[in-house]
Amino acid sequence: GRRQRQPEPRGVGSTMETGGGGFLVPLLLLPLLLPGAAAEEVVLLDSKESQAELGWTSHPLNGWEEISGVDENYKPIRTYQVCNVMESNQNNWLQTGWIARRSGQRIFIELKFTLRDCNSIPGVVGTCKETFNLYYAESDSDLGRSIRENKHTKIDTIAADESFTQGDLGERKMKLNTELREIGHLSKRGFHLGFQDVGACVALVSVRVYYKKCLSTVQNLAVFPDTVAEAAFATLVEVKGTCVNHSEVDLDSPPRMHCSAEGEWLVPIGKCTCSAGFEEKDDGCEGKNGHSCSISILGPNQFISLLYCVQLPGIRAQCKQMELHFVNLAFVWFFLFFFSSL
Hints:
Blueprint: E1 22-24, E2 40-46, E3 57-59, E4 65-70, E5 76-83, E6 92-95, E7 99-100, E8 106-115, E9 131-139, E10 153-159, H1 166-170, E11 177-184, E12 190-197, E13 201-214, E14 217-219, E15 222-224, E16 227-228, E17 235-240, E18 242-243, E19 247-249, E20 256-259, E21 265-269, E22 272-274, E23 278-281, E24 284-287, H2 302-309, H3 316-340
Antiparallel strand pairs: 1-17, 2-13, 3-6, 4-5, 5-13, 6-12, 7-12, 8-11, 8-13, 9-10, 9-12, 13-16, 14-15, 15-18, 17-20, 19-22, 20-21, 23-24
C-alpha cells in the first residue's frame, strides 16, 4: 500500500554514483516534487503479516528462538529473541527465508526491536552487549537451512536508541526501536537477511523489506508508467511520457519526467497538447461543445451533425466510429419499416 516518505536511512547504498539509465542532478532539484507524487512501497517481506510460524533458520539451537508476542498495538505477532548474556564469545545467527528481489534496485530494511540495558542485569559485566549485526546473502535461489557466514555481507551494526530495564518490564513499558537500512546494486534474483547476536538481550519485533517505485501518473497530458527507483541515492531515471487520447506531442519539447531514488516524480519537462477540436479537461482531452461527435440516436439533426463532424480533421477517427453506428442504425430502421409493412 501507499505510505508516507521515510527519512533517509543510514547504511549501505547512499552513494553518489550513477546507476544504469540514470544521471546525477544537483541536490537543489530534489525538492521539486510534484503534487501527489508520494512513493509507492512494494513490500517483499513483512514478518508482522505472518499468521503462522516464520520458520527462519537459527544456529546454534540455543540461540535465537521464535516465540509468540504482541506488537506496539498489542496485535499478536511472531518474533525472535535471544538473551545469552551470561556467557562470553556468543555467535548466534538467524537467517530469514529467501526473499525474491523482483524489480527492486534499492532495497530497504526496516527493523523494529527491543533491547535490554546491560546495566540492569546483574553479573554480566564483560559478556553482555547492546548491539547486533545485520547481514545479507545474495543468491539466485534459496540457500536452504544451512547458514554459511562467508556468504553474508555485513550491512551495519544495529544499536538501540532506547534500551529497557527490569523496571520497564514491571510497568509493561515497550521501548520499541525502529532502524532503517538499505542495500543496493543487487544483481541476483533474491537474498536472505542474516542477524548475528554477539551477546545481547534482544527481541526482533518485526522485519519489513521493500523497494520503492514511482506510481503511474498523468502530467502535462502525458501518461508516465510505473517506474522502479534506481539504486543510487542521487540518481534520476528519465522516463518518456505517452500522450493521452486526442492529444499530440510537442515535437520541440516531448514529455519527460524523472523518477528519483526515493520513488518520487520530479523535474517535468515538455508536454502534449490537445488535438484540433478538443480541449483539456481533467488530465485529458475531450471534444469541444458542438463538435464532439456525440449525437442522440433519435435526434433530428443526425445528417447535419455527421456531415459537419467529418470536416474536422482532429476528430475524424472518432467520427468514423459514429459513421458505423449510424449505418447500423439505418439498417435497423429499414428492417423495422420493411417488417411493419408486411
